[in-house]
Specification:
8-stranded parallel β-sheet, 12 helices, 339 residues, 3-stranded antiparallel β-sheet
Length: 339
């Protein structure tokens, strides 16, 4: 397999953040502090939220890592905690503009290797729509990363209708990532929320996009769900059964839930060939893209190796590693092979 795969799930953290210059009190504005070797601590509200490597911001280091993973292009999106929906909207706008411009500088340094997915302050719809326009028209990004909810309100809620309408109109790809997931308060033992609660959170979100009618009203949206869509594949038969038994469901879902689910895209950060086959069976080989969650330890360090263990035929491998991602991201030109 050549080095022309497209990784749709990677994250960026800037090497530094600007000092807080707003007027609000006790704002959890991020900063960076030195750590060991080539790492830095992300400090939020006076605590070390996460220690990240220089692959988070360094273009040369990231390209080096891509070579080892046999990846030719990455879609760059912010570390989800930086989406900052809990900040005052004017502060979030300043922070996200800085992060978006940081991603833009990385894309500009190697446009044949990177595609931008920015962020918008969804806690304020007017600001979010302006930033989405900036991402598409000024920065030329493929689209935007959003979380599963905004301060506890599912993105399937009707209040986010203007955002999805604008994304459809602008042709912006939407990459959905779990964040501060529901159920994390019930985790017992040392495992993280990423391991235990993310699958349920992303599955609930994908289901809400269907049941709330977003998928039906905006058929041209290009939406991808991280971590294989989480639990959605297990929910779909129950959703379809409930839909067939509930006449009122036709108001938001004129078609069966699985029809809408097969229009979405899903990364294969699922760690097991059996689950890759489940994704293909549930959604179709045309809707699966690779992801690594680079540069984090909880990610998939060898996404192509995972696919090779699946025993897939050559056309399916081609679709999952390249063709589907081009459709999702709106990339028409051939991806350059790594040097």
């Amino acid at each position: 397999m050549n080095h022309s795969a497209i990784d749709c799930h990677t994250h960026v953290v800037p090497e530094n953040f600007p000092a807080y210059a707003g007027v609000h009190a006790s704002v959890p504005w991020p900063s960076m502090a030195p750590a060991h070797a080539c790492h830095r601590h992300v400090i939020i509200a006076g605590k070390n939220y996460r220690t990240v490597s220089d692959g988070s911001w360094s273009v040369p280091r990231r390209i080096e890592g891509m070579g080892g993973m046999r990846v030719g292009r990455q879609a760059l999106s912010p570390m989800p905690e930086l989406l900052s929906y809990w900040l005052p909207a004017d502060d979030a706008q300043v922070l996200l503009r800085y992060i978006n411009d940081t991603i833009a500088s990385m894309v500009a340094a190697a446009p044949e290797r990177f595609t931008g997915l920015g962020a918008v302050p969804l806690q304020d719809m007017d600001m979010a729509l302006r930033e989405l326009e900036y991402l598409r028209h000024t920065l030329g990004f493929a689209g935007v990363e959003i979380a599963t909810h905004v301060n506890g309100v599912s993105i399937g809620d009707a209040r986010f209708e203007p955002f999805f309408a604008a994304a459809e109109r602008l042709g912006a790809a939407i990459f959905v990532h779990a964040l501060r997931p529901v159920g994390q308060d019930r985790i017992v033992g040392p495992l993280s929320e990423q391991a235990v609660a993310f699958p349920g959170d992303i599955g609930l979100c994908a289901a809400a996009i269907i049941t709330g009618g977003i998928a039906a009203r905006h058929a041209r949206l290009r939406i991808a769900f991280s971590h294989g869509g989480g639990a959605l594949s297990m929910m779909l038969p129950r959703l379809k059964h409930a839909w067939s038994m509930t006449p009122k469901a036709l108001e938001n879902m004129p078609e069966a839930p699985d029809i809408y689910a097969r229009r979405f895209f899903y990364d294969c950060v699922v760690f097991d060939p059996k689950l890759v086959h489940l994704l293909i069976e549930s959604y179709g080989a045309s809707q699966i893209v690779i992801g690594s969650d680079y540069p984090y330890a909880m990610g998939e360090a060898d996404p192509l190796g995972l696919l090779e263990r699946c025993g897939l035929d050559a056309p399916t491998l081609q679709a999952i590693t390249q063709t589907n991602a081009k459709r999702f991201l709106g990339i028409e030109q051939d991806v350059a092979s790594a040097a």
